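Retro notes
What went well: the complex prediction finally ran end to end.
Inputs used:
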Amino acid sequence: KTAKMPTLAVNRDDLFAHIGRTYDDVAFDELCFEFGVELDEITSEREEALKSSTSKLSKKQIEALDASVIYKIDVPANRYDLLCIEGLSRSLKIFLGDMDAPVYTKTAPDRMVTMTVQADATSTVRPYVVCAILRDVTFTPERYASFIDLQDQLHRNLCRQRTLVAIGTHDLDAVSGPFHYDARCPDDIEFVPLKSSDDTAGQAFTGRTLLQHYATHPDCKHLKPYVPIIQDSPLYPVVLDNEDTVMSLPPIINGDKSKITLGTTNVFVECTATDLTKANIVLDTVVTMFSEYCAQPYTVEPVRVDYVDSAGATTNSHVTPALPVRRVQAGVDFINSLIGINEPAANMIELCNKIQLGPASLVEDVGGKQMLEVSVPPTRSDILHPVDVAEDVGIAYGYNNIVKRVPATNTVGGEQPLNKLGDLLRDEIGRAGYTEVLTHGLCSIRDNFTALRRPVTAAVSLSNPANVEYEVVRTSLLPGLLKTLQHNKSASFASGFKIFEISDVVLPDDQNVITETIVGARNERRLCAVYAGPTSGFETIHGLVDRVLTLTEVAPETEYGANSTKGDEEKFRVAREGWCYTIRELDGANGQDADAGTYFPGRAAEILLTSPEGGERVRIGTFGILHPEVLGAFDVGYPASCLEINLEPLMQK
Amino acid sequence: PKANMSAEEAAILTHLSSGPDAVIEDTLTWSGQSKLDHKAVVGAVKSLQTDAYVTASDLTKSYFDLSAEAKDILANGSQEIIVLGALCEAGEAGISMPDLQAKVGKNVCKIGMGNCMKNKWAKKDGGNLVATKALADVSDEVQAHLKALADAGGSESAVDAKTVQALKRRKLINLVTLKSYRVGRGESYAPVRKKKAADLTKEMLDSGAWKTTEFKQYNFQTLGEKVGGGYLHPLLKVRAEFRNILLEMGFHEMPTNKWVESSFWNFDSLFQPQSHPARDAHDTFFIKEPSQTVSLPEDYYDRVKTMHEVGGSGSIGYRYDFKREETLKNLLRTHTTAVSSQMLYKLANQEGGFKPARYFSIDRVFRNETMDATHLCEFHQVEGLVADYNLSLGDLIGTIETFFKKIGIEKLRFKPAFNPYTEPSMEIFGYHPDLKQWTEIGNSGMFRPEMLAPMGLPENVRVIAWGLSLERPTMIKYRIKNIRDLFGHKVDMSRTRMAPVCRFDDLNTE
């Protein structure tokens, strides 16, 4: 899967009550599929507890849990308006044609509530705030729970765990404006926060002591992750009422004074942020979703936000929420061409209503082209470009109604030469009796270096390894093969156990340029093979070296192999002009050779290639009997030999 | 012709030569009488039986043999009874452990005391052991069971299964199995065995003996010998087949031998915002060393940055501050699209300008994900893309259909989906002929104009793409439940040896 999808869990019967229709599971799944969400799981509280391996509930307690059906629905990661039952049901009703998309309006209060921002102070930690008021809201336990859940969903996704945006909701009747947003020294902040642990209910904290409390108290584990966001800042952000009482210490906790309850009817919403675009999206999402429950549905009371500098001068002023309705144009021909359909403009206008892009109209651009002009509501922050409009028209039309065709593009296929050589050699080495393995590119420093009796040298290392097995990107294929032997102990080694792999290692390299980019590393394609059996198989591996070079059209140097009986075969050798190889005993004596320690002394060699381009012998690999300590480190109980060759020099023309 | 017969075979055939109804009643007793090794006799019977010289019926019997300790119990009573007797004798004051040991012996004391405690016949009172039952109140069940067994000659039916278990646990009895046969004449009986040849040999050809030699019947119901040789890995067999298919479809392979990428090519160039959750350390492996990309194509970088910050080419952009340090962060590529992006950039900027292209790749990607039966930190991604003027979603659907028909999947459905760098995006669902159900089989979409425009591709060039993992179709094809049995050093080589060829039904051709 490419994108992480947020999941919304909703009570099925509540959802159907919101939609105003009922479905069986299959039919609802179908509706979800066409609309572009996924009915991922059908469950219940009781079923979840039964399936859970970590649940500590007794059978009786589980029996007592709610058995009503819960739908778990995956929604696209950019559709924040589908993260609550209100938004999902509203979108589906509009998609089904049961409802017109609502128009979200800002009321015009006699006296607008204000929020004054001490911009010089807040800019040091969390510069922005946007606010709105929901008047005469009727909460029920379900609506209230959904209100809290939506904030959690937004905090998790769009707000990036509150780093970018944090939402604070308050009982407006418990406090009075004008409100202030400031950043103050942690020791100068003192207030009673919402209860987070039983032993501190009603207790006042300073900013500093509160964060320490959250960082350490076992009941505050849910708040601990947010502590580092501001802990080291010289100033902590605070939202204050007209009496200078702290209403919230974003992005951590709200004050007790303005605590919201089931009985709250006037809700003050503030979103503090480091990213103003996202703050506006978050606030728009919260108020568009829950203004449904206002005495006058879909209306929101605005708040004026004034940014003042330390001299008290107003530097900037906005009325929030933004609730933008954007008119976006997309060519009718463009939409038809992009989706591959042939819909008349009139039909497209109809389709726009299903996907909340209505009302739409037809206009002509300067060139006389027919343009579909749609209204993008504040709930649809995902619409960035006319292609987004085209996609929605495609969804409304139905992807599965699109007539397929095959591109007229005329191209010739082709392989990467290095991959092609690799595949040809895989076939040949398989024929030579070796079994192919496929091992991981990530490994531990121990396996990559010390277990091979090699000095720990530079390798690409991970900053966030998942576990000790994934510290570095391998610089050798050998550890993977030896670990494979270790895990196949029960196999028969009587006539020799032969395995091989052709794959990449990654080496640090700050000269390697690909697409005008230097990342500081490069891949290298290698062949590695291991023989293990009752005897070391050194000659067997040596034979494979010769075989691979014969296959790649490289001849032995005249002196190399002069003493061996070559038989009649040699006269049939086919080699590239100017290409030859030889082998030379690996000099492990002075410790200069990083690979030498891997091998049994006196039983290891380097493979030297001469090509017309370089003209000089270049080492392309080594082979030899594995040192008993290497075998021991990988728990291999049989003598073994190996070879490892860089295939890339064999590619040059 | 006697040369081919063993002494045992000869003795058996001779014994049966007295008449058509001659039998060996029990090979065990017969071996003893004939002074032959019973095992060798059984071997001879089996060998003769395969050539139908004899018939044999199984007389195998089992009985329980009593251990020395059990025989002792039969004679003197069980350890717990002996200990209880000693305790009762000591009266209410009881007896200390050393005294008890001295009285009944160390072994009897240990076993007997344990069982007395378990049976609640005795208790500890300070340092002493005191009886809680009189001898008359208890019975020696162990001794009774052993007696029943001994009386029945060790017959398995003498006591119930639970008792057998209990006695076995105390190592008092041991099951002995005696294999023996009743042997009579077979349909090919002859007093002297004539050995048949198992195989045709060079000597037979040279001497011409093959003309007169009698050959054994070949058992066509046993498997042939293993072929030996080497074997290719199942996932890479599937890779080879997928490469073939994409080459047949006119796709050109992309150079994907580059695991370390910049965030720039992996995310930013794809118009994936810098605050996107996929860029968390929870999903992506970032690199400590070398941590930063050294150089980038700067002109292109500027265009990408502008597109993120303020948009362009009809887009409003993401409207945030694009950070250079974020774009330079090195990582292990999370998708091969990091390479596709570079290929498209080159396609736009090549000499002579853009030309339509089809590209594919199959290579490794890395995700810092929670590992389970179907997820590892590394897996292979198959990706295909077509770049041409005025391509449509219909072209994408048609291309995907051609591809999946080549691997035997004909029925497809497309679900609207979201992906940061494609719009429209579609999840591909297919009716899988092996699974016999609908399942998600891939992802697809058209690259966003915000990704293509900064590269310098002409405005009406569109790029359609689709992708899937290589592991999932392989696991379905080779019936592998856990990905660790497919990828990595824990793969059992026997699985590799047993893997069939990778062949799909190409439904594009009749």
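What we learned: The first strand of chain B starts at residue 23 and ends at 24.
What to try next: split runs per interface for comparison.
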